[in-house]
Amino acid sequence: MKYAQLSIEAIQDTNSHLNYLYYEGFASAAEKSKSWKLSSSGYKKAYELLNHSLETNLDTKILELEKKYDLTLAENKVLQFKNHKIILIAVVLLMFLIVVVLSQHMIKQKQIKTLGDERNKVLENEKKLLYEKQQLLTNENKNKKQELIKKQMILTFFHQISKQNLDIKNFLFKLKTSKYISDNKNLYNKVLEEYENYNQKTNISETAIFTDDILIKLTGIKAEDIAKLNKSDKVLLILLALNAGNKEIALLLNTSADSVRNRKLKLKKKIEKVQVHINEQL
């Protein structure tokens, strides 16, 4: 019991949770020595220290739990903040992607609209060009028809004149060969003179109405190639350009259709030989 008393007195750390063991040992020793009062006070002190130790341990554990809870709560807040940050970044990225996609879509739509407008403009221009081309072709056809009518009228006019000339020539020729006229020398000479004068006046190859300018316009011949042709060639080319047939040309030139065909063949060979360039339609 003495040693138990000394151990209690030797306690240095009064806050140690193991101090109740010293008092419990002291109370047990006092109980054995039948010192009930000391034993009772020892057990009481041991109980108080044990209770205090338990409360201290409990408070410590509670504090530790609170710290752990606070730490967990803080970690959760940090995690939530991180999650919110990630979500915010994801939302920002998503919005950015949406803006980019919408911008690309708008640009594409604008390009499509621009291409559509340009295509419509091209179509409108093509329609205008087609309309102008049709109008031009219509005018050209109209002009060609008018030119053809003019040519036909001119040919008809020359046909009538040529027929009249031929009739007059035949009449003068008959007079010249008439026995009654030939017997009358003065009258014969007069008829012969009129016949020759009329032949010269009605000779189309000598007339000035078929100029080089008309030949160029009708045949497309080059000016430098005109010198390679004689007057007869020029007249025949002009008549061919006017779509005159062999019979019509023969009537105008006071010759036969066979003669016209031969002259056309000779003219063709000559043109190829001297390399005269004219419209392929002739």
List keywords for this structure.
282 residues; mainly alpha
Task: Explain this structure.
There is one protein chain. This protein has ten helices and no strands. The protein has 282 residues and is mainly alpha-helical. Among the domains are: 2-78; 203-282, no CATH class.
Order of helices and strands: HHHHHHHHHH
The secondary-structure class comes to mainly alpha
The description of the largest β-sheet is:
none
Instruction: Flag low-confidence runs.
Output: none
Return Rg in Å. 69 Å
- Give me the count of strands: 0
Average predicted confidence as pLDDT: 77
Q: How much beta, percentage-wise?
A: under 5%
Count up the helices.
10
Q: Percent helix among the residues?
A: over 70%
Distance between the termini: 159 Å
Quick structural summary:
By secondary structure, this protein is mainly α.
Topology record:
Layout: H1 2-9, H2 19-32, H3 36-177, H4 179-183, H5 185-201, H6 212-219, H7 223-226, H8 231-241, H9 246-252, H10 257-274
